Amino acid sequence: KDKSMSSGEPVKFVPVSSAVDVMFWQKLSEMKLNVWKLGDGSVPIEALRSLAAPSSSSPLQLTHEAFLSADKKSLSAARGEWAVRGELKNYNTMEGFKAEKWQEVADTVGRRIWDAIESGEAEKHPELLSQFKLCSHADIKKWVFTYWFCFPTLVAAGTGVTFDAAACPVDQVTGSSERTKQLQHAVEALAARCRADPAELGSSEFFIVHVPHDAAQPPEAGLLRDFQSWKTGERAQSGQILLGFADSSNLPANPSGSVRNLLVLAAHKWGLAQAKVLCLRESLSRDGDISGSVVLSLRLPELPQGCAMPQVTGWEANAKGRPSPRLVDLSAIMDSQRLAEESV
Amino acid sequence: MQTLLRIGEMLMPASTESHYLDKGVLTPAEFVAAGDLLVTKCPSWKWEKGDRSHLPKDKQFLIIRNVPCRRRVRDPNDDENEVALEGGDDGGWTATHTTSEDLSKELSKASEPKTGADSDDDIPDIGDFSGGLVSDLSALSVSVVKTRTYDISITYDKYYQTPRMWLFGYDEARRPLKTEMIFEDISGDHANKTVTIEPHPHTGVSMASIHPCRHASVMKKFNDVARSHGKEIRVDQALFLFLKFMSALVPYIEYDTSASVEI
């Protein structure tokens, strides 16, 4: 058995990673030339998060669709995907980019997340927990882009989140594969409801689950905003209540770091010392089958009412594993004719 | 050349009569129907918008992103190491003179091939930015295996009246792969015969593409075999069939064929 899974061991989270496609940079260049010009204010963008397949973790994907506008207020997410809101700041000069105070940028977004947790807004709009920041500089003539993602993560002082028991497959918690199938349908129905009315219901990236002790009763999926009433109501007696999230990690005992702000909410807002977390994952057949999901029993750090905001981390590491901006050079692959047209 | 092709494409009427069974070709409407089935069965495939008039505005080409490719068909540093693939008569892939010409031109431009392993060293140093940042003690830093990934798109080729596959690769550090590196992921026999580097018809980005000149005859051949066994590959299943025979060319690019048809 994996040593890291035994009780008391700190949980290691898989950092959220980004995948930006070429068309995103094409679109950014176009926006820079035609819309923003010398403006360098923050603009809203969206990325897509998807579940991990058994063989690989999924990055947060940004495409040319990432840019929002008055007539496109959100991305359309397919089954098994969630739109994640962020903001982009494109610096006019490389000097301006290099002179940025990066920890302050992380703290600013981190503060927004913390405020949303304290005010209760994050329970109504769980997408606030996964808001991100992208800072970039575009050398449009040379088609060279420098960029750095921050996925702001609140980290309590001390040992962090630890395992209370070993991770287990979802079937062990539901009791059978049939009930896991019922849980899948409940989660899919919740996700479809949220996709149909995101303004009112928010994202279903984070949710709650009720697994009745009575095996004849099907599991249920609910919104974060229902947690308090589930916890104090009949469901707490009749079964287990779990936190759930769309997990883009595929490692057995390492959930995606995207869940960490939810755990801060659970500890601080709901006062939980322990939590069971359903890490929603896709299995091989890819028809939405979640039998590859795992359940983690976690011990949460103390974050009592009135405590100070935790520290904020989240700047993406480069290929060498150090937090650092990345650079992408597209000059060799852009169509020369198009380059000529666009540089006029 | 591209412009000429595009003008030619515009002048050519799009066919509406089905010749799927007798010639293995698709009409634009059949391509759209097959694409619709693909995105329904495998939602990681998506339709993209575009401006070609023979296709609906919001259903111009299909794309799937971030498809992992964990191993190379051939190691550029070791010719002996080429992975043996099921060869034989796979439907008549033969050399096309124009494409092999293009290819040798492309290859002569290519610099020394590089493996992904040493590619970290050429990350340009743009200064140390980590000063003053809160360090994250709970982040998993080791054992997250990075692999090459591909964005794969399927366009409708109006001249050949078939789907056409385009490959855009990224290295382990998420930087676009150089063309010569993409050839490491294409099955040996085919790389030199049927792969060209051209601007993608909808994005203008230079990409590797599997030349479609033999697609129709392969489609027809598979259909004939299926029918001789009393089975039918419906025209809306054509892209599953297409992806199936494409996977012989790019055996380690792990796109989803699980919902595929029985062939």
Describe this structure in words.
The complex is a heterodimer of chains A (344) and B (263). Chain A has 344 residues and is of the alpha+beta class. Chain A has helices at residues 22-36, 94-98, 102-119, 121-124, 170-174, 177-196, 198-201, 227-232, 235-238, 260-268, 336-343, and strands at 18-20, 42-50, 60-62, 81-91, 132-139, 144-155, 162-169, 206-212, 220-222, 239-246, 274-280, 294-299, 311-315, 326-329. In chain A, strands 2, 4, 5, 6, 13 and 14 form a six-stranded mixed sheet that branches. In chain B, strands 1-2-3-4-6-5 form a six-stranded antiparallel sheet. In chain B, helix 7 (215-228) packs across helix 8 (238-246). Mean pLDDT of chain B is 77; it is low at 79-121. The chains are: A alpha+beta (344), B alpha+beta (263). At the A-B interface, strand 1, helix 1, helix 3, strand 6 and strand 13 of A face strand 2 of B.
Say what oligomer this is: heterodimer
Number of strands of chain B: 6
The count of β-strands of chain A is: 14
Shape of chain A: globular
Residue share in β-strands of chain A: 25-35%
* Uncertain ranges of chain B: 79-121
**Straight-line distance between termini of chain B:** 38 Å
**What integer is the average pLDDT of chain A?**
92
Based on secondary structure, the structural category of chain B is alpha+beta
Calculate Rg of chain A over CA atoms. 21 Å
Main beta sheet of chain B, described? 6 strands, antiparallel
SSE series of chain B: HHHEEHEEHHEEHH
What is the N-to-C order of secondary-structure elements of chain A (H for helix, E for strand)? EHEEEHHHEEEHHHEEHHEHEEEEH
Percent of sequence in beta strands of chain B: 15-25%
CA-based gyration radius of chain B: 20 Å
Instruction: Name the poorly predicted regions of chain A.
Output: none
Percent helix of chain A, as a range, is: 25-40%
Fold topology:
The complex is a heterodimer of chains A (344) and B (263).
Chain A: E1 18-20, H1 22-36, E2 42-50, E3 60-62, E4 81-91, H2 94-98, H3 102-119, H4 121-124, E5 132-139, E6 144-155, E7 162-169, H5 170-174, H6 177-196, H7 198-201, E8 206-212, E9 220-222, H8 227-232, H9 235-238, E10 239-246, H10 260-268, E11 274-280, E12 294-299, E13 311-315, E14 326-329, H11 336-343
Parallel strand pairs in A: 1-3, 4-5, 10-11
Antiparallel strand pairs in A: 2-4, 5-6, 6-13, 6-14, 7-12, 8-9, 8-10, 11-12
Chain B: H1 2-11, H2 20-23, H3 28-41, E1 46-48, E2 61-69, H4 97-109, E3 148-157, E4 162-170, H5 179-182, H6 188-194, E5 195-199, E6 206-210, H7 215-228, H8 238-246
Antiparallel strand pairs in B: 1-2, 2-3, 3-4, 4-6, 5-6
